[in-house]
Design a protein that fits this description.
Blueprint: H1 3-32, H2 39-65, H3 68-71, H4 73-116, H5 122-204, H6 206-213, H7 219-234, H8 248-307, H9 318-387, H10 395-470, H11 479-525, H12 535-547
Helix pairs in contact: 1-6, 1-7, 1-11, 2-5, 2-10, 4-5, 4-10, 5-8, 5-9, 6-8, 7-8, 8-11, 8-12, 9-10
């Protein structure tokens, strides 16, 4: 290897080393820059938002739906009491009807007797016929009251049944909400734990990258040392045509070249040592990086297979579970619509109860005049019986009639108090009930709107997950390529270090050959040593020695040894 080849090789090594160190200087900071979204972060954000929304919705449901059945227990206790009041009214109505039927029979018997009395009984017969007509009216009104009462009771029963339907709807809503909330909680828990592990593992890669970056610190020492080697080698003298015997200039050139090559060898040994140190730092830490990346890749593939697979073939995938939850929420939104319809039916039935109660009271009001006319007819009967001996046989019937009318009148008085009290209390009760229902309906509408908004967030989460499935990433865009570039550069540095070691051996062989050549010249001139006589070469040699320590280290400031004048 001649001097030209030596200079060409060292220049090439220097260029390759500088190129790789510059690449690493660019790549390491880029790898440590954690900016840029990843699918891992996207999914974690999706799950976090779903969890937060789920907690809010669960709390709303708890406040709205829990204990709903017992909320109106006191109202229904009062409603049941009003039903008992109606039962008492019904008892009086039956008494009136019974009295009316008995009056009708008595009137028929009295009419038969009066008819048998001939012309003398005609007046009594006419009075009794009027009494029979009034008793028939009493029976009709009693039947009407019984019918209205039955319809009123049916409406009250409908209220209870409708409310039972509302409670069932509430239970269905609570069940659907609970199932959906439980499904979301389960999904978040199952999907978040491996994500958190993967996030922790991905974050751990930056520490060895930071540590590997410390290997770049040797680049200034290496670069400056190689610059000195190139500077020294440029001053190598031509020793191809040495005269025989060797001239003083030949010996100066040989001695100078030997000194330069030996200095270069020592410096390159230090360069190799610095490269080895950098390589060790790079290799040890980058092995950790590679190991972490492989673990991350395994976790990533496992996560994709478990949670991001095709929902058609993997029922445990996030999309499959989320689609199932969305279906339940759709059912819940449908149940809200059913709930509102039942609520409206309940309000209408409450209004119907009020109307039926008023109708019943109107029928009751018609009974009063009938009873009053019965009293009047009874008095006429008594007068007629008292003055007409021909019909004295009906005296007992008239007395019985009086007792029945008094009984009916007593029942009527009791009914008046009961129905009046019932209408007042049922009106207050239903007013309070419908007001509470309206409040519940408003709260339910608010819950429905909130659920609808959360349903939209579920659909949004589904869309975001679709995007993550298409390209699941755990590191910022370009991270994997940067890592491959670093690995390639580290392998290149390792190869350069191996070549440099071989080159140092070649350089050593070259200097040994020159020593032998100079020894040959010493033998021809019968001398054992040589001191450079050329003042310029001697000056350069001394300055080179000053720039390079005994161990081959290089001073950082070349100005410390003065300016070097080159040939």
């Amino acid at each position: 290897m001649n001097n030209t080849e030596i200079r060409a090789k060292i220049k090439d090594y220097s260029s390759q080393i500088e190129k790789n160190f510059m690449l690493l200087s660019d790549k390491f900071p880029t790898l440590l820059n954690k900016q840029g979204g990843t699918s891992l972060e996207e999914i974690r954000d999706v799950l976090t938002k779903l969890g937060d929304g789920n907690s809010v919705e669960s709390e709303k449901e708890k406040n709205m739906l829990s204990g709903y059945g017992s909320k109106y227990s006191s109202l229904f206790d009062e409603l049941n009491q009003r039903i008992k009041d109606l039962e008492e009214v019904n008892s009086h109505v039956k008494d009136i009807k019974s009295d009316s039927e008995e009056m009708e029979l008595i009137a028929l018997n009295a009419m038969v007797i009066s008819i048998k009395s001939g012309e003398k009984g005609r007046a009594f017969s006419a009075i009794t016929e009027n009494l029979k007509r009034l008793s028939t009216d009493m029976i009709l009104y009693s039947n009407n009251l019984i019918s209205e009462e039955k319809q009123l009771l049916d409406s009250i029963t409908s209220v209870q049944q409708i409310f039972g339907g509302i409670v069932d709807s509430q239970k269905q809503l609570s069940s659907l909400g609970s199932t959906g909330a439980s499904g979301i909680s389960s999904l978040i828990q199952r999907a978040s734990e491996p994500l958190d592990e993967m996030k922790s593992l991905t974050d751990s890669v930056y520490k060895p990258i930071q540590a590997a970056m410390e290997g770049i610190q040797q680049q200034d020492i290496i670069r400056q040392a190689l610059e000195h080697v190139q500077l020294y080698l440029e001053q190598i003298c031509d020793t191809e045509d040495i005269s025989s015997p060797a001239s003083d200039q030949d010996l100066d050139n040989l001695t100078f070249n030997i000194t330069v090559l030996q200095l270069c060898e020592r410096i390159l040994n230090n360069v190799e040592s610095a490269l080895q140190k950098s390589e060790t730092i790079f290799k040890n830490n980058w092995n950790n990086v590679t190991s972490i990346l492989e673990s991350v890749e395994r976790q990533k593939n496992s996560y994709m297979a478990t949670f991001l697979g095709d929902p058609a073939s993997n029922p445990d995938s996030m999309l499959a579970v989320l689609n199932s939850i969305i279906d339940k929420f759709q059912g819940m939104l449908g149940e809200f619509a059913h709930y509102q319809l039942v609520q409206k039916d309940l309000v209408r039935t409450c209004q119907n109860i009020n109307e039926k109660a008023r109708t019943m009271y109107a029928v009751f009001e018609n009974l009063g005049p009938v009873v009053n006319r019965l009293h009047h007819v009874r008095i006429l009967q008594q007068i007629e019986v008292a003055k007409n001996t021909a019909i004295s046989d009906v005296r007992d019937s008239v007395t019985d009639m009086e007792k029945l009318i008094q009984s009916a009148n007593g029942s009527l008085d009791n009914m008046r108090a009961l129905i009046g009290n019932f209408i007042e209390q049922i009106g207050t009760l239903l007013s309070s009930f419908t007001y509470s229902i309206a409040q519940d309906n408003a709260e339910m509408a608010d819950l429905r709107n909130s659920k609808n908004a959360y349903f939209n967030s579920l659909k949004d989460a589904e869309g975001r997950l679709h995007g993550c499935i298409q390209n699941f990433s755990v590191f910022p865009t370009g991270f994997a390529k940067e890592c491959r570039d670093v690995s390639d550069s580290l392998s290149s540095i390792e190869g350069i270090q191996s070549k440099l070691s071989s080159f140092i051996q070649e350089l050593h062989s070259r200097s040994e050959a020159l020593v032998q050549e100079r020894n040959q010249a010493f033998s021809e001139r019968q001398i054992s040593s040589w001191t450079i006589k050329d003042p310029k070469l001697n000056d350069i040699q001394n300055k080179f020695k000053a720039l390079s320590g005994q161990d081959g280290s290089v001073q950082r400031d070349m100005n410390d040894v003065g300016e070097i004048t080159l040939f």
